[in-house]
Amino acid sequence: MAKQRKWNSIGLAAILLVAAPLAARSQDAPSAEPSPETLLRQMSDALKNAANLHFHAEINFDDVLISGEKIQYAGAADVTVRRPNGIYVDYRDDLSAKRFWYDGKTGTLLDVALAKYSQVDLPGEIDAAVDQLQQRYALTLPLADLISSDVFEMIDKRALAWGYIGVHDVEGTLAHHIAILGERADLQLWIQKDGQPLPLKLVVTYKSTPSAPQYEAVLMDWELDAKVAASTFEPDLPDGAQKIEFLVAEGGR
Predict the structure, then answer these.
(1) Would you give the DSSP letter of residue 209?
(2) What is the pLDDT of residue 90?
(3) Please, what is the average pLDDT of the chain?
């Protein structure tokens, strides 16, 4: 794939992001091909212009054993966002189950299996709250980049190069397939071709990690500007749940 522009470092952060080695593409690719930059901007605008949004994700991810063998696990997440200050995530996989609420003031994380929860004060808007969770507590929400105020910027500032792969199928829906090269991880992203330019699938390949594990999410049941009750972002804790401290990560700030 011809390098179409130079950037700083790399792609969509996971619980979010990035995929397999990029297919080689010549510099004289047909001019009729859509611009990956334009597709990404359209997708980003569709998401950030929605006052509320909800989606479901079916997830597969690799775990690398000491032996180097890759074991694949499955999971799912339901994500609801109220801009500028509401997040609810219901996440479960083969290894864990967690729920997270953010109401513009407080973040609450519940470990469903252990019936233990932690709470922490957070800034009053989503981008700053997500950043503080990552920087201070080493907590990355599932598919967090997709709920940022500018998904394009999140990708743009980290990527080294990108390219258009073609129109491919995602669960019966045609989608523009693009690939983004990063320094430590690569991203493949499928954006719905007809109708709203919504992300339908992403694959992240962590190429700087031994055995290059992958993270894949198929995104569905999108609802933009749906009515969302304020109670969605208020903690709904089980009876008897035990409160524990939110641990600050080593070097957290």
Answers:
(1) S
(2) 98
(3) 87
